[in-house]
Write a structure and sequence with these properties.
Length: 343
């Protein structure tokens, strides 16, 4: 398949937005930027179009897709909403929040992996929002990477993974947040957090009566456990070389890394402040120590870069689980297959 790449730098480029929307409406696949990561879109009401997503990504067919709408109220057409949904919408939408709701018939089973619920998000990125609006239907869009590899946060990553597999790639610059949306399931006014993201538990607590964190957010699933979200059971975000997370004070981590650089062919993801304390080879600064947003925005591109450096092992700090740090922690422990080393 030939993949057309178009650059859209502004929503005023109406012709290009229309062109992308036309491909989607006709059942094609279009990758486009969102504020979280790049999405791989298809018409969510077209069973065959949605099926193409699984083939292009190599995604297991029981791992359901998030549907994207231009306005929070458009969810009505596809899902059974609630008062709590609208309170969340008022507070956080458009934005990086996905809410799982009971599904309506308009969404085919291929989109939801046979579940009777559907995940709904209204993206804030102006180009994503405008393409969806122009389509006039919900767009199913998982991250635009090959299943299992780090999510794409710029067009270069999508071009690397998806050329020849999709009809069109829209290059709209880097994703601002760099981690996928927060996902919650609602039970009345109570929420269960299935995937942490930029909308934090504290923020959700201002709207929901209770926010419970699924244990799979921070812990490994038991061998025979059925997760609340099918995606929790799959290997994800993983670079090709093994990633090991270092748990200890910053001083202990630096001492460990200095020794490691002498005896191993390792790649290191470090804080910006630490770059000059270490040798230059295979060193990737991922943001200032206290700037979790910057580290989140850089994580996936750092993991992809680490792969090009060909180290035998990748070392990184184990993040703290507070605030946005919980999302970073969740992606990193999964990328590391829960390999944590005390130092
Ligand atoms: P991605 O599309 O790669 O951003 O991942 C979407 C995540 O949402 C996956 O982990 C899915 O398992 C999860 N998800 C989507 N729809 C549902 C649903 N109806 N119930 C539970 N989890 C869902
Ligand atoms: Mg994904």
């Amino acid at each position: 398949m030939e993949t057309e790449i178009i650059v859209i730098s502004d929503v005023s480029e109406k012709e290009k937005i229309k062109k992308a929307a036309d491909v989607l409406r006709r059942g094609g696949l279009v990758a486009f930027p969102t504020e979280t990561v790049y999405g791989l879109g298809a018409n969510a009401t077209d069973e065959n179009a949605a099926k193409k997503i699984y083939a292009a990504k190599g995604r297991p067919s029981d791992n359901p897709l998030i549907i994207h709408v231009a306005d929070p109220a458009d969810a009505e057409k596809y899902a059974v909403t609630s008062e709590c949904y609208y309170r969340l919408a008022k507070a956080f939408m458009p934005g990086p929040l996905t809410v799982i709701l009971p599904k309506k018939e308009t969404i085919p089973a291929s989109v939801t992996g046979g579940l009777d619920s559907v995940a709904v998000r209204c993206p804030q990125h102006p180009i994503a929002n405008e393409i969806i609006r122009e389509c006039g239907v919900a767009i199913a869009a998982p991250s635009a990477n090959i299943s299992g590899s780090p999510s794409p946060t710029c067009a270069k990553h999508v071009i690397h993974d998806m050329t020849g597999r999709v009809d069109m790639i829209v290059d709209g610059g880097a994703s601002e947040i760099g981690l996928e949306s927060t996902i919650i399931k609602l039970d009345g006014n109570c929420a269960t957090l299935l995937r942490p993201g930029a909308i934090t538990c504290d923020a959700l607590s201002c709207v929901c009566e209770r926010v419970e964190i699924s244990h799979a957010v921070t812990e490994e699933l038991a061998a025979n456990e059925k997760p609340l979200s099918p995606g929790m059971k799959y290997r994800h975000y993983a670079p090709t070389s093994p990633l090991v997370l270092l748990d200890g004070d910053d001083d202990c981590v630096i001492s460990f890394l200095r020794r490691a650089q002498n005896r191993e062919h390792c790649t290191i993801l470090c804080y910006d402040e630490e770059a000059e304390l270490l040798r230059f080879e295979r060193l990737i600064p991922i943001g200032k120590r206290d700037d979790i947003a910057a580290q989140s925005a850089k994580l996936f591109s750092a993991l992809r870069e680490a792969d090009t450096l060909d180290g035998d092992v990748i070392y990184a700090h184990l993040p703290k689980k507070e605030g946005l740090g919980l999302a970073l922690y969740n992606r990193m422990i999964r990328a590391a297959a829960h390999t944590i080393k005390k130092v």
